[in-house]
Amino acid sequence: MHKRSRFIFSVLFMSASLVFLQAGLAENSQDISGRDKPDNDEVSHSKMDHTKMVKVAEKEAPALVKQVKVEEQLGNIAALDTYFKDENGRTVKLESLFDKPVVLLPIYFLCPSICNFLQADLAKALNLVNQVPGKDFNVISLSFSDDEDYTHANASKQNYSNLITRDFPLENWFYLTGDNENIRKLTNSLGYYFTKTRPHFYIHPSVLMVLAGDGKIIRYLYGPDFLPFDLGMALSEADRGEPGISIKRGVLSFCFDYDPENKTYVFKLFRITGTAILSLLLGFIVFLLYPSKRDRKKETRLSHDTHK
Within a domain: residue 308? Predict the structure, then answer.
């Protein structure tokens, strides 16, 4: 390797290392500054609670990884022989809501954080899809919390229906609650796994499913943002009964972290930048080790001319 090449290699390697180091320091400093400088007693208490929750989560992380996950069941049929209560307290068999494609969002109504964003983002996306709600598809917000009943569902529906800005028959957006047996039967059939850590508190994936009218699982859309284009494409696939390709959750878990203080997802700029630099570094190494076709042709031509 030439001296100039070695110099470029060293610069890229040091840059990537510094970026990853800076990312770690930035995250740690944000955590420390947040704890050491409370604005008042209430904020201080809140952050102490959050710190305790983080420590508990770190201890339980290996077990939670196995419990909280999505195992995609594309092409399989969801458990439509399950029973739930709608937002008015009426018992409904899930199968009765599947006379057309269905957008199904698992959440719980008393969730203090991400579920609120998921429902709001879904409402915004529904405003922009080309398909006609009630005619081309139904929507289900399914609570996986057996602590909740139809009164929680009714209150939630009233809140999020205010975000609908198009002509939308709200009787085709169902808010469901149920008992643990029916909830688990349905969520297991969807490959959606969550865990309850204490009353009214769950750790769960952020994802919705689009299903065909016969209950066939067509596509998974991962949150926190649901794009109208992706949702529209999934509904088109559901209308044809053809399972689609999901955006892999690994991309989201790598690029985004949930910030419980600001209640938002934070883009990890340093980590992404470091990854980009390392990718360039790898490409540069390949370029140095394997000469291009043009170089090989040139060497062949020179060798041929030399032998003449």
Answer: no
